[in-house]
Design goal:
Helices cover about 45% and strands about 25% of the residues. With about 525 residues, it is an alpha+beta fold. It has four domains: about 35 residues; about 160 residues, Immunoglobulin-like (Sandwich), CATH 2.60.40.3680; about 230 residues, Orthogonal Bundle (Neutral Protease, domain 2); about 60 residues. β18, α2 and β19 form a beta-alpha-beta unit. The longest helix has about 35 residues.
């Protein structure tokens, strides 16, 4: 018994020593991490049910004197700055720039030199109206720009309403922890660099309050909290509507716009319109882009409206390069003419990508709404440059007016026919121009039209498996081969895909019916034995 107690005593001593050692190791580790930096920036973002976000930034330093800087709001909200301990001996607010040298549109650089006897502490507070975008049940938080002196380190705490549901995989950069504290979801992120944007996709159980704002032909479906954005959007559409009717020689009858809160996968999507092969759907606009420089959101919204004008004027979305190129070109031109500079960043993106393509734009000829290429920006850039070049070399807006007057009452669903009408509007043959872009201006357009029609038909036969899947694969392969110039093989595979798509239902019924008959015969055979 005495030996047993001696062993237990030794074990307890070892456990105490181990805990003590571990505690000191952790403290030493934390101290070592902190000692690498002059100070610590702590960002706290407290988000309410409407997405309004109270931002508190504190800076703590335990050196006697130093110099630091951080980004502060320039023009989207007011902020208060308080020195809690120590003193600032010099401060300066100046323009802020990214590491690449581009100026921040919404932030200034606040640089300060400080003294601290035992420590220096500074606090900055401000409010963001749309820190999170919310269209119940979907919510998306996007933090203010975090950027500070690289000699310092940082940590971020995001507090979401208590009923919020957030998965670890829906937080970027990856969270250090997700906990529940004081009735709120708390997401902690220890920053690995001095520059960051925190993105969190989450849901809420609270019911939505969708409203409809209508004026003329326009109708916006929006949560009540974004009613002012809906009103501004319709004013923007009304500003350009008359000019667009003059360009396209058509009037629209009704347009519905639906606001959405993005997911992580939607960060690069400003807006979209579904197309089912027979008509265009509603316009969907990403609310995240309302947090941009004037002209950026407007260009996106106008881009989507121009798709409806292009469709109404007789251009099928199957000639997607013209739809997208024209939507980009006109939306940029019209917004820039208003002095709205937000579209400039889109211009730079498209033109920089286009330069990398070295005038080889022909791959967009076979682009259609059923394809989403991995290098989608290259398709937008090539389409934009093609339209910009052709339009500006042939009279600008007046060329477009002539083009749409010529095609009025006609539906154009292939590039060859479009080039024919473009040549009429230009008063000269544009065939060689399109060949210089890399287009195949030959009879391939006919097989392409049939392939796209077959793909739309398959959308109604998705259940006819495996033949719908096989036909789709063959048709996609054929389009890819058309793009690469392998015309003969593309036609063979395309015709096989079209044939299977036509018989997909019959083949599926025959296949599964045959399997059922065989199984029935087998069961009967076993019963007879």
């Amino acid at each position: 018994m005495e030996k047993l107690w001696r062993n237990i005593t030794i074990l307890l001593i070892m456990i105490v020593i181990s805990i003590s050692t571990t505690t000191h190791t952790i403290q030493a580790y934390n101290k070592l991490n902190t000692s690498q930096y002059n100070g610590l920036y702590t960002y706290i973002c407290d988000v309410d049910y409407d997405g309004v976000t109270k931002v508190t930034i504190t800076y703590d330093s335990y050196i006697t004197s130093g110099r630091s800087w951080l980004l502060v709001p320039r023009n989207f909200t007011k902020y208060t700055l308080t020195v809690i301990s120590g003193s600032i001996v010099h401060e300066e607010v100046k323009r802020a720039y990214t590491k690449e040298g581009e100026e921040f549109a919404f932030y200034d650089n606040f640089t300060f030199t400080y003294l601290g006897d035992s420590n220096f502490k500074l606090k900055l507070n401000y409010t963001m109206d749309n820190g999170a975008l919310i269209v119940e049940p979907r919510c998306f938080f996007y933090s203010p720009q975090i950027y500070f002196n690289p000699a310092d380190t940082g940590i971020v705490y995001i507090y979401l309403p208590g009923d919020s549901k957030v998965l670890e995989g829906n937080v970027q950069p990856p969270p250090t922890s997700i906990t529940f504290e004081d009735g709120k979801q708390k997401i902690t992120i220890k920053l690995q660099t001095n520059s960051a944007r925190i993105a969190i996709e989450y849901t809420t159980s609270r019911p939505g309050n969708l409203k409809t704002y209508s004026k003329g032909i326009f109708e916006v479906i929006t949560p009540h909290r974004y009613m002012d954005i809906a009103e501004n959007l319709i004013r923007t559409y009304e500003t350009f509507y008359t000019n667009l009717t003059k360009i396209f020689s058509v009037n629209l009858t009704s347009i519905r716009i639906i606001f959405f809160a993005p997911r992580m996968a939607d960060l690069g999507t400003g807006g979209y319109i579904p197309f089912n092969g027979t008509h265009l759907g509603n316009i969907y606009l990403n609310l995240l882009y309302t947090r941009t420089v004037q002209g950026f959101w407007e260009q996106i919204a106008l881009h989507e409206l121009i798709h409806h004008f292009t469709w109404a004027a007789g251009i099928s979305p199957n000639v997607l390069w013209l739809h997208e190129g024209l939507a980009e070109y006109l939306s940029i031109k019209l917004t820039m003419n208003m002095g709205w500079t937000g579209a400039l960043s889109r211009v730079k993106t498209l033109e920089n990508i286009a330069k990398q393509l070295s005038d080889n734009y022909g791959f967009v000829q076979w682009w259609n709404p059923l394809q989403t290429p991995s290098n989608i920006l290259s398709y937008y850039a090539a389409s934009y440059i093609i339209v910009k070049t052709v339009v500006e070399e042939n009279g600008g807006i007046s060329f477009l007016q002539k083009l749409f007057r010529e095609i009025k009452g006609t539906t154009i669903s292939d590039t060859n026919t479009l080039i024919h009408y473009m040549s009429i509007a230009a008063g000269r043959d544009l065939t060689l121009k399109f060949i210089s872009f890399g287009f195949k201006v030959t009879e391939e357009s006919e097989i392409y039209k049939m392939i796209v029609e077959a793909k739309y038909a398959l959308m109604k036969k998705r259940w006819a498996q495996p033949f719908a899947l096989i036909a789709n694969w063959l048709l996609d392969t054929s389009i890819n081969m058309l793009s690469s110039g392998n015309i003969i093989l593309a036609k063979i595979i395309g015709w096989i895909g079209i044939f299977i798509s036509m018989l997909a239902v019959t083949l599926t019924v025959a296949l599964w019916g045959g399997i059922l008959v065989l199984l029935t015969m087998k069961v009967r055979g076993e019963d007879e034995l």
